[in-house]
Design goal:
By secondary structure, the chain is of the alpha+beta class. Helices cover about 55% and strands about 10% of the residues. Helix 8 packs across helix 12.
Length: about 300
């Protein structure tokens, strides 16, 4: 009996007809789906456009930084300006158009290419890639004292060493290395060559003096380095050491070479016209020489 009832129920379920969906409800569902799709399409397109815009923005910002480097390299130049073609030649590229496309924003350079570019021209890599830091902000490590830079200078083998000094009582001074006409390295530390310093500052002045002597008279086994000097204003010094100017601007015509660094080593005033030091370089310059002299005399006593 139970088995028959079960078979009857199963037969009823199989023969039961599915009621058709009301046409009004179906139309409402279709309308809702279509409305949803219509709403999603602009959103999808917007996201695609946004992604493309971000990519285009990155390419353009990279191109802008490339162009800014060229502008900085030519700042103050009346002739013999750097061009994209000249930069491409320096890099050893097969085609000028490759670099031109990066400068115009037509193509996006790889990080490997940017690293090659920055290494060739002494540009800060983080700035070139992401706009971080400053164009020529140095990547060199700071050293405890000026003399501690000697090994690094020897390692870089610069064409010349440029000693820069601000024409002020503080006598802020620093060191720039010219590796090529298009590539410079700014050593990060600034020293006050004056009496307005404490014990550490006095030690730095003596160390600065020692470094000059070492560079000006290297061992016979090493090629002698060309040393130069520049006396600049405080604004140029700030731009130079903050990385917002091309260091090569120091060597442009009109930037007179100064022997202040060499005169500084004349602590006993034996050079010709040593009596002009206070007039040419200031009273604080002479007082800094006195600090060096005191160190030398202390060493002699020991």
């Amino acid at each position: 009996m139970c088995r028959q009832d079960s078979q009857c129920r199963w037969r009823d379920r199989k023969t039961k007809k599915v009621e058709p969906i009301d046409s009004t409800i179906l139309a409402a569902i279709i309308t809702s789906v279509v409305a949803l799709l219509v709403a999603l399409i602009p959103l999808v397109l917007s996201r695609r456009k946004s992604k493309a815009a971000r990519q285009e923005s990155h390419v353009e910002s990279t191109a802008f930084r490339f162009r800014e480097i060229l502008d900085l390299m030519n700042e103050g130049r009346d002739s013999e300006k750097f061009t994209i073609a000249k930069l491409a030649d320096i890099m050893g590229l097969n085609k000028v158009s490759e670099l031109e496309n990066y400068f115009s924003g037509k193509d996006e350079p790889t990080f490997e290419f940017i690293d090659r570019f920055t290494s060739c021209f002494g540009v800060n890599p983080s700035w070139a890639k992401f706009g971080e830091n400053r164009p020529y902000e140095t990547t060199e490590n700071s050293e405890p004292s000026p003399l501690d830079y000697l090994e690094r200078i020897r390692e870089l083998k610069p064409k010349s060493v440029i000693f820069v000094r601000v024409n002020s009582d503080d006598g802020e001074s620093g060191i720039v290395l010219r590796l090529e006409e298009w590539k410079y390295v700014v050593l990060p530390d600034i020293y006050s060559i004056s009496s307005q310093v404490g014990g550490t500052g006095s030690s730095d002045i003596f160390s600065f003096y020692q470094l000059i002597l070492k560079l000006d008279d290297l061992d016979e086994t090493e090629p002698r380095l060309r040393c130069e000097g520049r006396i600049i204003d405080s604004e140029t010094m700030e731009r130079l050491f903050s990385g917002t100017m091309f260091p090569g601007a120091l060597t442009l015509r009109g930037r007179r070479n100064s022997n202040w660094w060499y005169c500084f080593t004349d602590v006993y005033h034996q050079f010709y016209r040593a009596d002009e030091y206070p007039t040419k370089y200031g009273a604080e310059f002479v007082k800094a020489q006195e600090i060096v002299r005191a160190f030398l005399e202390t060493r002699e006593e020991e």
